[in-house]
């Protein structure tokens, strides 16, 4: 991720670092170039604007221009502001509640929701030593429920037995009851996805939310769709309310615009990154590490 941006910023900063002293106009020229690089990486315009304003304000400060290595100081400021843009207070998935902790997974069809549910369940089981139960609420697509069951077997996580003819709401309630009676720590509910924002789907997700009171509502969105992923997050947040985002297909995303825009546009933290098709391909989201990757 971020190959293009990293290359562009690298050449801007190499030039800046070669200069002994920096004038205000050197900083302004560099900021114009950084702005173009961010826009080319498909970062949302308001996020770019606020980023550039913050960097410029700090970079034309006297201590930078008068310092012995002004170029280095500008890079440091850009690094800090990238971390702030990504969400310096980003946390992991929060399980701090009475068991069984309900986690609702939402998103558009094809975004990687079911795969991510299994990836996260595997991680909670193996790393956090939690007993996890997964349930698919997709009553319209039998294949989706079957997919979750197969993934569950693959990662060694239980899935709620499938009963024909139930509604999403009934399945959710049955999952919570099973979670309580059978001593599960976490119940993950994989909601149905549609190919576009669909009010019926949203109403169903809201009904499930109201019935189980999820501790986390995680939106799974495809990083490759760039700003569409950000719009999807905003839509789900307005209609269902989300507590965090998991970006998928980050392995194929060379631009990184969705990752850099999410926090600024939605106000919600990215909690993990999907970095491949395999069930182990889930990474924690570390803004510091990502800023480091961007700046090379
Ligand atoms: P859903 O319809 O949202 O539940 O999507 P699925 O979980 O079925 O995923 C759709 C496709 O995306 C599958 O082929 C997954 O293997 C693939 N996929 C999911 N997450 C990732 C990821 O992080 N990287 C890559 N490369 N593929 C992914």
UniProtKB/TrEMBL annotation:
It catalyses: GTP + H2O = GDP + phosphate + H(+). One of its GO terms (cellular component) is signal recognition particle. It is a peripheral membrane protein. Residues 99-247 form the AAA+ ATPase domain. The keyword Ribonucleoprotein applies. It is found in: Cell inner membrane; Cytoplasm. GO terms for biological process: SRP-dependent cotranslational protein targeting to membrane. Its EC number is 3.6.5.4. Keywords: Cytoplasm, GTP-binding, Hydrolase, Nucleotide-binding, Ribonucleoprotein, RNA-binding, Signal recognition particle. Residues 1-86 form the Signal recognition particle SRP54 helical bundle domain. GTP binds at residues 107-114, 190-194, 248-251. Residues 100-296 form the SRP54-type proteins GTP-binding domain. Coiled coil: none annotated. GO terms for molecular function: 7S RNA binding; GTP binding; GTPase activity. The keyword Amino-acid biosynthesis does not apply. Part of the signal recognition particle protein translocation system, which is composed of SRP and FtsY. SRP is a ribonucleoprotein composed of Ffh and a 4.5S RNA molecule. Involved in targeting and insertion of nascent membrane proteins into the cytoplasmic membrane. Binds to the hydrophobic signal sequence of the ribosome-nascent chain (RNC) as it emerges from the ribosomes. The SRP-RNC complex is then targeted to the cytoplasmic membrane where it interacts with the SRP receptor FtsY. Interaction with FtsY leads to the transfer of the RNC complex to the Sec translocase for insertion into the membrane, the hydrolysis of GTP by both Ffh and FtsY, and the dissociation of the SRP-FtsY complex into the individual components. Composed of three domains: the N-terminal N domain, which is responsible for interactions with the ribosome, the central G domain, which binds GTP, and the C-terminal M domain, which binds the RNA and the signal sequence of the RNC. Belongs to the GTP-binding SRP family. SRP54 subfamily. This is Signal recognition particle protein. The gene is ffh. The chain holds residues 1 to 296 of 498 of the full protein.
